[in-house]
Amino acid sequence: MCVSEDWYINDEITTAKLDGYRLVEHFSRRDHSHGGVAIFCKEDSDVDAEPIEEISKMSVKMNFECAAIKFKSSIYKVIIACIYRSSSTGDFNIFVEKFELLLNKLSKYSNSHNVVICEDFNVNFLEETRDRTYICDILGSYYFKPIIDQPTRGPNCLDNICISCDTDQYDAKVIPVGWSDHAATVLSLNKQSK
Q: CATH code at 125?
């Protein structure tokens, strides 16, 4: 489970308790709330999950907040990255620079793993804008594609999941949640995935 904009500062997220889940990796701001990202895994699963620290260390507060894990089970080998970009204070140019660096690092795994990027871009994927086009062009150049095409906050699609696998290998949906102003984006990988 990926959580963006978790609002924890310092390492407070390490005290968060989600029944049945354990924290695997996170990025927390040191001095501002309303940001941060975290990745949790089910405690009772047969998944072996470990942080990818070189990716998590790429984070730049408010501009590109990132955490990543590598996990494998008897069925899957998956890399998951979770990203957040602040809409009000984030510098889009810094975000793009770091995002392209992330895609470059993740592309080395794409032959042996499914790669999934869950993000709160704070860019509307339902409107043809310069920022959206730029992000989609970068994604395409690394053979990733955004798969959420419906609103995730009000009438806007600000959150997305980007994948490196074929479209018949997953199911994606948007689910409203009562405790956030964003809907949850949910991805299920089919068993024939890498």
A: 3.60.10.10
